[in-house]
Amino acid sequence: MGFMNLLKHLLSDDWGVHPDDHKRPAADAPVRVMPVPQRLYLPLQQHLGGPARPVVLVGQQVSKGELIAEAQGMVSAPIHAPTSGTIVAVSEITAPHPSGLTLPAIILEADGRDAWGELPACVDPFSLSPAEIGQRVAAAGVVGMGGAAFPSSVKLVGASRAKVTTLVINGGECEPYLSCDDRLMRDQAAAIIDGIRIMQHATGANVALVGIEDNKPEAIAAMQRAAGRGDVVIRPVPARYPMGSEKQLIQVLTGTEVPADGRPADIGVIVHNVGTALAVRAAVREGKPLISRLVTVNGQCAAYPGNIEVRIGTLAEEVIAFAGGLKGDGLGLARRIMGGPMMGMQIPHWRVPVVKGSSGILALDASEVAAQEPNPCIRCGRCVKACPMGLLPLEMSARIRNQAYDEAIDLGLKDCIACGCCAYVCPSTIPLVQYFVHAKGELAAQDRTKLRNDATKKLALQRQERLAREAREKAEAAARRKAEREAAAAAKVAAEAAAVNAQTQGESA
Amino acid sequence: MIAAILSLTLLGAALGIVLGIANKFLKVEGNPVVEELLVMMPGSNCGQCGFPGCNGAAEAIVNGTAPATCCPPGGKALASAIAAKLGLTVDLSAMADDGPKIAVVAEELCIGCCRCSKVCPTDAIIGAAKQVHNVFREACTGCSSCIEKCPTEALVMRPVPVTLQHWVMPRPVAA
Amino acid sequence: MNSHVLTAQPVASPHAHGGNSVGRTMFRVQWALLPATLFGFWLYGWPSFFMWLLTVAACVGFEALALKLMGAPRIKASLLDGSALLTGWLLALTLPPWAPWWVPVLGGFIAIIIGKQVFGGVGQNVFNPAMVARVALLVSFPVPLTWWVHPLPGGGLPAPDVVEGLRIFLTSLPVPDAMTSASLLGHAKTEMARGIDLLHSLGGETSRLQSWFGVRAGSFGESATLLILAGGLYLIACRIISWHTPLAVLAGVALPAAIAHGIDPARFLAPETHLLSGALMLGAFFIATDYVTSPNTALGQLIFGLGVGFVTWVIRSFGAYPEGMAFAVLLMNALTPVIDRFIKPRILGRDRQGKPLDIPEGQGA
Q: Which residues of C touch A418 (CB under 8 A)?
């Protein structure tokens, strides 16, 4: 344990866990740039918020960087073609998701030329207003590159409106195995600092604090050299998972806590990933949209672990093949993961695409993966010590096991960030996070069912009213017709009577 | 001993009087539980339970004249929720429910007779005479009133398809 | 692109694990108890070995029987997790070293079947199973449970060999008078009842050093205070237990004892005597720290430990029994759910009452 960790431990402030790094030698290997694959699969939903809407037709030729799907709604992001080529289909593909369900995507066939289309002119970012910077960032489809993939322009514009004072840049990368941010900081420190300054200008923050875990000394040195003296301050933080989690990083760097049910902007802070800073710089200075990212390929089964620069939409299968394939053709493979081992998602097979938030592709063997059989909870309380949010995982999971979801919420289920520290330390290998994710999903499903029931009740009521109204109108129409008929009959009788009268009068005259 | 008998009798009488007064002044009109059950039900008054609408079914369940499993569209989820609320034990094995279902029109079989759209309690079926009909997914409550009306058997009940947005992580198997 | 039909259940994160297991934890605790146990065998001879062996065997055996009767799915794995073995070991340490064979068997039955399985098995019991058994035996059979024996190295008679030890164990013959001895606490209490105060009754008793090294009469596990303390510190160093409960138990006994001894030394024992005699060290480090029956949080554990210590001191000083640790532990076990209900950690972003923290003035989108 480092000195900072020891101090925290003695003061009993030892939330979180310290898993084995597994970052080297992948972190030390130079970045390899993967050539454009034959086909790219671009899901319409690669970000939080509304899915993008395709603006291209099948058979259309697009150039590199051209808009192929536009943002829908306030919180959304557009999608751009990562290379020049032809749109072959807009159809369903397997999502990079444990359920194995599908989601709609645009499938692009590369033409080999990789030719840029027309890009917006390069400008001096510091001459633009925050709103204009927000527009360029939104148009470039930049989202949070740390994994959450929240549309960055929404965050930047919201931050400038909320008058934040501190810009926190997340260089933590606390997940084991992953090192894409580490490599970015080592290789492109100057560009990242430039991006940070642009974001500072866009948000109006006084100071930018860059939090980097102390297990990345080369990255810290490179960033310090690039930042020099000024408003951008590089701050090493103890290497402890989940230090890269927003709330924990803010607490360690600024000493203040984000209020529950609130956002960092409420306390004058905004957090962005180092990769996002780089993407913002490219968008604002050069008008380049987000079309590629660094992905770490790692795990015991990976033959040549390292960081690969990959076009968005490349299948994980092809990334692994380029990176050197799996040892023994993947015979010992126990789990495939997109992301890190603590919060990453299990994927059903390798034919899923890399999306904007994919930070890693892990091929783990049996020794690295958690055992499956859970034992009964022995109430040891290790999960309580490990939880960075101060929750009681053993109590919450016991309630959820008995389907008492409301009691689990009272214990703080909504504050759970699903970091996985509790399940990591559990001696009975209970899948605690799965309980919490399941409960949150069930509650969301119950809310949806309630909304649906309210809506159908309203529809049923409207139908009753419609039937009543139709019956009423029918009765009125019938009454009217009857009245008309009677009036006509009465008129006829009156006319006949008058005619008879006239006749008799004529006869008598 | 006389003192003991006397004191206990007086105590019993006093407490009984207190209970009687409380019953008169603190009485709760109506049964709020019926309202709570009504909120949980689909509310389409389809009548499959045999009672006059969802209100009738809720009252019957509270009275005890109907089991918690009497609502087919509500399925096992509704039955277990009602049982949990009222503290009943319910045997779900008799229910033929493998998840929520909605009606689907097989367009090649539909002849546009409009018999189904007339009986749908939420007007979920759209279609004019001699035109192919279709069911609005969001409005269908799964009450199955339309199924027997269709002369060509174009209407079937299908399980609600799970999408990525609505997928729920399954509960882990307990130790 | 076809989507595959998933045959396996989806698995949630985290996919890595720290390697901790129940078996490893229990094993470490047993390792910590080993020095004191071996010392006890040396002090008390073969009968004590058989007593320990049968206690452990009875606990494991009854656990296997209970699991089989309940139709539990993974009996072998459940037995191998070491929890029944540990319960038996701790129970053996609190019994008299020359207890006859039926005491461990009955104790094992009460501890596992009544104290643990009836509540729902591992992790579900409210009371510490070993303490439930000990208290049940003590209240039901007070005489065999207080038959203390002189440590053999210092005693008058030669140590029994294997066969003799087995005979003593199985036939529950009355122990020869030359062998019986009163424990320090028992002696003090009986003398007090006779009206002789402490200054006189403890005059010729074992020196403090002997107490530290454990060469004095008492239950099987209480002898070697030093070895038990070493075991306890080992567990704290390995982070199996935290320091909160043991420190609180010792403080809960020492502080009232110091105050009371200061006021009336003839009536109340000195704090060191309290700390060194009886099962206090064993209780503080091994029994009160039982995971299942102690609170979840550090502050809760402090309160729990202080409660155990204080009630032990009260029973020892004012109660009818000379040794109060078992009762104190059971009483505080009953309060553990209450402690857990009120003492919860503060959630990040909320105050102690659970309300979200206030947003500072002038901020907020």
A: 13
